[in-house]
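Subject: design request, 220 residues
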């Protein structure tokens, strides 16, 4: 069985150690792996233990990668899984890491969905439908997305947001005939995710009631 004959600090990465087995360099590991397996010079290791240590190092690398992603912004579990699969980590390792991150509270789809829904409502000025599509696209399940949207949009005045967007858009529509202007404004608001029950009264308020159809025959 191999013996851990030497363990030295890496010059450029002080949080890592070089492991020498039977007098020869074998691999490098993170200090967390050293602590996890209680590594010290003179230890006799089985071949299985060596494999477990190497797997533990891959797992630690995957965990560190995930935490670097999470330092920049929140991710859904699905998004983070997609990111990690681009690395050289096996599916089992990725699932273990994601389960640990979820247990520790770093990955939380409920919190992710509420935060994303709040951003959609307050900063992006998206309607509820558009916000739902964005959450589903992020891999959040529909039940979780529904709860988040109900929490956020219950207190958010979608009508006021739609009205604000419509008033901002209205000056650029003045050169169009009334029906074309209404269609253009409706399209913009619907793409933003507002439902028709919100869009119709906002258009009436900003552009006036829908003009009557004068295309019919008129008697002399």
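Subject: RE: design request

Done. Sequence follows.
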């Amino acid at each position: 069985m191999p013996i851990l004959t030497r363990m030295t600090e890496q010059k450029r990465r002080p949080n890592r150690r070089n492991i020498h087995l039977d007098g020869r360099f074998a691999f490098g590991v993170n200090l967390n792996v050293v602590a996890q397996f209680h590594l010290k010079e003179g230890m006799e290791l089985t071949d299985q233990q060596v494999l477990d240590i190497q797997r533990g190092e891959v797992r630690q690398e995957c965990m560190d990668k995930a935490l670097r992603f999470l330092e920049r912004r929140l991710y859904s579990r699905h998004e983070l899984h997609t990111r990690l699969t681009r690395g050289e980590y096996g599916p089992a390792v990725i699932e273990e890491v994601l389960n640990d991150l979820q247990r520790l509270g770093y990955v939380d789809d409920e919190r992710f969905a509420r935060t994303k829904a709040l951003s959609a409502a307050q900063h992006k000025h998206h309607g509820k439908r558009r916000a739902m599509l964005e959450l589903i696209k992020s891999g959040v399940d529909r039940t979780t997305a529904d709860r988040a949207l109900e929490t956020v949009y219950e207190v958010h005045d979608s009508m006021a947001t739609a009205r604000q967007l419509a008033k901002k858009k209205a000056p650029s529509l003045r050169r169009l005939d009334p029906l074309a202007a209404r269609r253009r404004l409706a399209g913009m608001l619907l793409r933003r995710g507002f439902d028709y029950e919100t869009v119709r009264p906002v258009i009436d308020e900003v552009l006036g009631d829908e003009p009557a159809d004068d295309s019919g025959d008129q008697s002399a």
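The radius of gyration is 29 Å.
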